[in-house]
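To whoever is covering the structure queue this week,

Two jobs came back overnight. Logging them here so there's a record in the thread.

Job A:
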Amino acid sequence: MEIQQVKVKEFFDRLAPTWDAGRETHPERIARILDAAGIGPGVTMLDAACGTGVLFPFCLERNVAALTGADLSGEMIRIARQRFQDPRLRVLEGDVLAVAEGRYDRILVFNALPHFPDPQKLLLTLSRWLNPGGRLTVAHDKGRAAINGHHQQTATEVSLGLPPAEDTARLFPPTLRVDRIEEDQNHYIVSGILPEEGRD
């Protein structure tokens, strides 16, 4: 199955006004994900496919030095900009691979991987934006069965489905050392680090 960015954009633009009201936030699950992703004081980070900024307050509370959020949906971005004003925060509208190129200590793809048409290209490109010693993490705050079941009911045209975490780990480029693979009914985490000795 192929998914097109225009369909993804239209889908999330349509859902944006009710997105936050319909989302159940689990702070303890998010904390576990942010710990795994190495989000902490002084880091620069990219929240790829940030939506309405669900992660923003959690990351800012951890005293990141700079936070960039990017999302394809203009409506999601409009809401994120209304909700959050912080000098450390930059919010960008558009395909993350086109608008967010830079250098980051941490890059997080949260609750979004199934909506990218080419996940392997996404991870390869994002990995090239990491500073040496940086970390790239793919994560969800629900289990794979719950995510895929929900997408089959509501988002079949804009979701490739979420593969087993071990399969996602194999999509990470060889320049990254995957050191965390975790999958249960409440979490899905795959995280890899770019060794200090350099990049390709």
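Job B:
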Amino acid sequence: MSGRTYFVYIMASRTCTLYVGVTNDLERRVFEHKQNLVAGFTRKYGITRVVCFESYGEVVDAIATEKQIKGWRRARKVDLIESANSRWRDLSEGWHGKLSGN
């Protein structure tokens, strides 16, 4: 047992472009996405809202879930998001600033 927590998360842009990721520090990773510190897909498409996340005790479980979700059709991802967050609100509201000391 690792003793750490790992997260699978789904982020969305204002136009609902989706990104699925995995991390052991969700607040730090979301901060990086929101500040455009992560080059690539999320920066290119303006993906800054956390719309869904789940925690896992083992990294292998988190990675397996991430891969599974990435393989789903968009409709199934939308169903997952809307089952817990029907308004697609940014679940990270209030997190921003914790890491920067503000």
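Note for Job B: Residues 6-84 form a domain with the GIY-YIG endonuclease fold (CATH 3.40.1440.10).

Please reply-all if you pick these up so we don't duplicate work.
Q.
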